[in-house]
Amino acid sequence: MPPSSPDSRRLPTLLAMIMIAGLAACDRGTPVEGGSAPAIPVTTRQLQLQSWSDTVQALGTVKARESITVTAKVSEIVEDVHFDSGDEVEAGAPLVTLSGQQQRAALNEAQAAAEEAERLYKRQSELVQQQLIATSQFDAQRAIRDAARARVAQIRAQLGDRVITAPFPGVLGIRQVSPGALVTPGTAIATLDDTRRVYVDFPVPESQLSHLAVGQRLSGRSEAWPEREFEGIVSTIDARIDAATRAVTVRGDFPNPDRALRPGMLLQITLSRPERQALLVPEISIIQIGNSAYVYRVKADDTVERVEVGVGARRAGLAEVTSGLEIGDRIVVDGTGKLRPGSLIREGAIREGAFGEEAAPEGAVPAGAAAADADVAEEGASKDDSRAAPTATPSNGD
């Protein structure tokens, strides 16, 4: 009997591997029941109009309803300070008194001159009625009297500038001056803010301009008060759009009775748009390819087609569809990663890990199945080698 060659010994093993791989491929991809591909289990949803109130998010800065830095109008020595840092004051309350000795002396002099001019005016008014003096002389005395009165008013105004008062009610900041200090125009004495109501200015993209309206509800959150939500309304929409940012500035009005919001604070603003009816789909049903978004729509024969859709606002796992779908359309929600246009589907449970998988090319074997087939083939080859080993004994030359 001639000796067996190595190729002849490996032939049974190769045949076994080919048979096993062929059976696995038949189980996965061969047509069944008249040539139709097996249906892919997915979950679907039929679209209906739903109530939808999307929001606009923005960052804004708190501003006081009224806010100034208190300064002096003249250069003078501080005579007295009538407030402490953080005081709450009413409108007209005196804050600082500046030295005004020269002005008080000038006022006394001006008042004396005004009184004398008034007496001469009255005397000459009697004389002019008796035609004892010329009318021009009387007119000159009247001008002198009026000038003396104006001088008194001027000096009183200068004295008034020496007393700095609060122009509106509010809360004073940290005091910056002390008695005896020299202040000049522009010297900061303290800040004054009316924060019983505050404004928050925030930018909104111009694409949202048609959805803005005075009176819309706002909510704001601050890192300083993480557990608290502040409620307000839109009070003003700016008349211009910033050409650099293409955004319009919106001003919100927030009541602040406990003064929790302070000027300069950063707020996360949420602008709630009016509630409306919209077609909503779960975000997981949307397939994003570049700048385009698609969903799989189920046809009457339970096959799917890929439809490009326009996507609007997104919130809480839902997305608004603005174009591409209609009321009553049935779309695939879970299992989109296994689908291709024309795939047959059925309602069923989705195995864990199927979400987000990309469809494999036609004829391709999933990695897990290929590994399992390789293990089976290796096991079969080992068994064939063990069976072939007794017959593959070396020849004695007989």
Automatic annotation (TrEMBL):
Coiled coil: 100-130
Domain YknX-like C-terminal permuted SH3-like: 279-345
Compositional bias ranges of the Low complexity kind: 356-374
Domain Multidrug resistance protein MdtA-like barrel-sandwich hybrid: 67-189
InterPro entries: Beta-barrel_RND_2 (IPR058792), MdtA-like_BSH (IPR058625), RND_pump_MFP (IPR006143), YknX-like_C (IPR058637)
Membrane as UniProt keyword: no
Segments forming domain CusB-like beta-barrel: 198-273
Keywords from the named record: Coiled coil
Residue ranges, annotated region (Disordered): 356-398
Source superkingdom: Bacteria
UniProt record similarity statement: Belongs to the membrane fusion protein (MFP) (TC 8.A.1) family.
Protein name per UniProt: Efflux RND transporter periplasmic adaptor subunit
